[in-house]
Amino acid sequence: MLGKNLHLSQFISDPSISNINFLGMGPIGDIHVDTLLLTWVCMGGILAASALVAPRLVVEGAGGSAQAVIEGLYLFTQDIAKGQIGHHFKKFFPLIASIFIFVLTANFIGVGPWRALEHLPGWPKLPDGEPFELASPTTDFNVTAGLALVALLVYLGSGFWAHGASFAKVFAFNPIEWLDTVIRPSTLALRLMVVITADELLRGAFLTIMPVILPTFVMAFELFIGVIQAFVFALLTSIYIGLTVAEHH
Questions:
Q1: What 3-state class would DSSP assign to 207?
Q2: Is residue 196 a part of any domain in this protein?
Q3: What angle do CA 207, 211, 215 make, to 5 degrees?
Q4: Which residue range is the domain that position 197 belongs to?
Q5: Does residue 41 form part of some domain?
Q6: Would residue 130 count as lying in a domain?
Q7: What pLDDT digit, counting tens, does each position of 161-214 carry?
Q8: Cβ pair 12, 29 in contact under 8 A
């Protein structure tokens, strides 16, 4: 949940570790442990699923249901990259597919009746004594900003890759382009964080009002929104790269 994370300082009382100032950005104890763990769970789950499915893929024939899902994801993300980037899409396709699959998994992992876990003995609590609520890592701005930063670096790198040093002329004495460079990743990060956080808040409200039946429909809606947001993030990243590769000469 937005602003309700487990900090490293809650688990490590040694000031020599928790109070280290990291690059002037604040104490290392402010690291969001829950975000890191859930992000690793998402990445580990994706890698584990890939490792299990890969040996079962077949070249001829329909294959199993897992292969159908993998092929569907492949074709879907390929259409996104190819449609926006053009004939250069193969160089950027792994990134677009990775962004879509990771954001989709991260959005989905927060959807569930996790509030039932708050009653387990030893369940972590926030500094104010409130039980910690398990939420999607994409509700943490650190995650969405990191993804947006990757998109920005690839966006800039693709410009220099496609047009060489002449790409720098785009930014020379052009404040609009500088502003656009800041706004694009910012909107990517904020849109994803705000929408997924709003979904988390909506589910929490319905769980309080009617904890049995109604939240099921809300969680189904959350899954739908999770797919849309993963699609939007991958699509906009593809559009930004496509515009850079195609238009800036």
A1: helix
A2: yes
A3: 60
A4: 62-247
A5: no
A6: yes
A7: 888 888 888 777 778 878 888 888 889 999 999 999 888 888 777 777 776 666
A8: yes
Tokens at 212, concatenated = 């049995």
Q: Is 204 helix (H, G, I), strand (E, B) or coil?
A: helix
The span from the CA of 138 to the CA of 153, in Å, is: 20
Among the listed residues 213, 243, 237, 210, the one whose alpha carbon sits nearest the alpha carbon of residue 98: 237
If you count DSSP H runs as helices and E runs as strands, how many of each does the chain have, helices first? 7, 0
Residue 100 has pLDDT above 50, yes or no: yes
The model's confidence at residue 81, banded by pLDDT at 50, 70 and 90, is very high
Span 38-71, pLDDT tens digits: 999 999 999 999 999 888 888 777 778 888 888 8
- The verdict on residue 29 lying in a domain is no
Q: Measuring CA to CA, which residue among 193, 226, 227 is closest to residue 76?
A: 227
For residue 220, the tally of other CB atoms under 10 A from its CB is 11
Q: How far is CA 135 from CA 21, 35, 98, in A?
A: 27, 9, 21
**For tokens 């995650």, what's the residue?**
143
User: Rg (Cα) of the chain, in Å, rounded?
Assistant: 21
Bridge partner list, 27: 21
For residue 74, name the pLDDT band (cuts at 50, 70, 90). Answer: very high
Number of domains the chain is built from: 1
Kindly report the CA angle at 58 between 54 and 60, in degrees rounded to 5? Answer: 160
**What is the rounded CA–CA span in Å between residue 143 and residue 6?**
15
